[in-house]
Amino acid sequence: EVQLLESGGNLVQPGGSLRLSCAASGFTFSGYAMSWVRQAPGKGLEWVSGISGSGGSTYYADSVKGRFTISRDNSKNTLYLQMNSLRAEDTALYYCAKDHEYQLLRGFFDYWGQGTLVTVSS
Amino acid sequence: EIVMTQSPATLSVSPGERATLSCRASQSVGSNLAWYQQKPGQAPRLLIYGASTRATGIPARFSGSGSGTEFTLTISSLQSEDFAVYYCQQYNSWPPITFGGGTKVEIK
Lengths: 122, 108
Known about the structure:
The structure holds 2 protein chains of 2 kinds.
Chain A: E1 3-7, E2 11-12, E3 18-25, E4 34-39, E5 45-51, E6 58-60, E7 68-73, E8 78-83, E9 92-99, E10 109-112, E11 116-120
Parallel strand pairs in A: 2-11
Antiparallel strand pairs in A: 1-3, 3-8, 4-5, 4-9, 5-6, 7-8, 9-10, 9-11
Chain B: E1 4-7, E2 10-13, E3 19-25, E4 33-38, E5 45-49, E6 53-54, E7 62-67, E8 70-75, E9 85-90, E10 98-99, E11 103-107
Parallel strand pairs in B: 2-11
Antiparallel strand pairs in B: 1-3, 3-8, 4-5, 4-9, 5-6, 7-8, 9-10, 9-11
């Protein structure tokens, strides 16, 4: 059974940093691209960042480029999102999501975690 | 960036009736369009990809159609568990991957 378990969300002050983790199990982690998708309270879905299965290719939304860094440790089956220079508008539930197709970077997601909440406020 | 626009924002439907949800892309995305369902307090669930292919375990009452810039999600006979928010998402040209604003299907 595929499982994605996010952690690391917290209350942080504007300008602060946070690292999110997503522990994956139930599939060959290194074979799938992964993404982070966020959802502000009461709002829709916003793709944040994606990474290839090997970790060699990374992609970002303009809203986070230069502030967030996606990475993965395939030996630990874990996805990360390092978030720096946080702003109030980064407040959201952050989901990690598994790409649908093996060894392809398609960009749609068949499994999602339950999310971890990031609140940026003074 | 490809902008995805969903309509209507809210759809009121009685159980057993058909629901038709629309999604429009600001430029062609071919058939690279997915639909997700999200219930309160839950993560999104993949329903449809490739504009018309049902994901694993998705009931046949859900169907997708369209290509290019115009897409439709149809729920043939709404069940109580289908009342939720539905999002379309394009993956033809990214980054960024983009989602529509969602359509809430509520009980009439």
